[in-house]
Amino acid sequence: MKAQITIGHEASGTPVEFDIEELLATRLLVQGNSGSGKSHLLRRLLEESAQMVQQVVIDPEGDFTSLAEEFGHIVIDGAAYSPPEIEALARRIREHRASVVLALEALEVEQQIRCAAQFITALFDAPREHWFPALVVVDEAQMFAPSVAGEIAEDTRRMTLGAMTNLMCRGRKRGLAGIVATQRLAKLAKNVAAEASNFLMGRTFLDIDMVRAADLLGMERRQAERIRELERGYFLALGPAITRRPVAVKIGPVKSGKKDEVGGLMPMPSEAPEDMEALLTRDLAAEAAQTPPAPPPPAAPPIEAVEQSIAASEDADEVDVGLAAQTDVQARIGEIIEELASSSEAAFQSASAQYQTFLMHCRRERIIGPMPDMQAFRRAFAIAGAGLNDLEEATRIRILDLASHVEEDLLAPWLVIARAAHAGETEVDEDALARAYGTSSPGRIRRLLDHLEKQGVIVVREDFGGARTVMVPGLEDASA
């Protein structure tokens, strides 16, 4: 028997039903400009199916936390947990089939994106015995699957795109049905949007968004005007889980959430102009007096004191420059990178955060001299983390020559593999590999090894017991 819910009605009053079982196999895309009723639609869908299927909501604005009051969803504050804890929570959510709302409003935008990406990846990488059916709702999906690079760091963008692509493209076999909602369809990555087979298109005005919506709905370009003319709360529905022909549906009422209309009007004050003026100016001086005045600027020091301070500063700078020249600036920079590479805290930071930490250490020690740029720092950090500086120069040069064929983002884990292969270790140390790659997910490590093997820079052999042997082609001469 099919599990169906009613999401709303056509203009004629005919109910429009949603087949939840079919949705689990075909995924859903919701699009609508701000004020079109997109969040109301998602809430209706979640409320009506709450007793049928597990639900996981990625909520960047805190719009869906009220589901906890009416339907027992567990609210997880993303700001209260570390990245490993977020991943552990995701695994337990799959194991115990808990319906949750991941609330991210307390985080900055890039932190929201990284937290959601790690959370979704952990859901995806759950053990096979925990692949229970679940709806995964991602609101404001253009943030988590951007079509072009924005202001976020490149490693963050790759992380979140990988997580969202896995959810929409490969999540079905793992029981995960992605529901993505966006204000701007043109800003959503095409490979994420294209995996949805069901669509609910709300009011939108930009031509580029209407053209994308019309393409997904199989409509002619001139028919896209119908999307612009939709009223608030109406959506154009199409898909195997809803209807085989496009229909305009008015979304039904909801039980949770704010009852007041956002942006609604309210009566203006009834006070007469003179009364309103009195309210604004009464006891104004007394209220202002309660605010402590800003402290006066300090008095200017005597000119003699200023001259002496400048002279002392110049003498100190000359001494510092002399010391830096004597102790070899570049050698100290290398030592700082070595210290960071051996730090457990820096291992799981983004590349940009690692670079900023490095610059902070250099400024703290007042190191004067040319600093490595971001790319040079990442390469030196990867070399130090893999322990290549402990090898003989000829061996190190040989390994780095082979590394020229490795993608920059994957250099650190590849160097760990190459260092182990040179030492005669055929079994990969997954802890060291995870640390170099900046992840605690076994699934990501497996995908990393598969990707490196496809690139031809490693060879992986797995026996019947599951033990993996990893070799690096061309490295035999390095150990000779």
TrEMBL record:
The keyword Nucleotide-binding applies. The keyword Nucleotide-binding applies. Keywords: ATP-binding, Nucleotide-binding. Residues 24-214 form the AAA+ ATPase domain. One of its GO terms (molecular function) is ATP binding. It comes from the Bacteria. Signal peptide: none annotated. SUPFAM superfamilies: P-loop containing nucleoside triphosphate hydrolases. Transmembrane segments: none annotated. Pfam families: DUF87. This is ATP-binding protein. It comes from Erythrobacter rubeus.
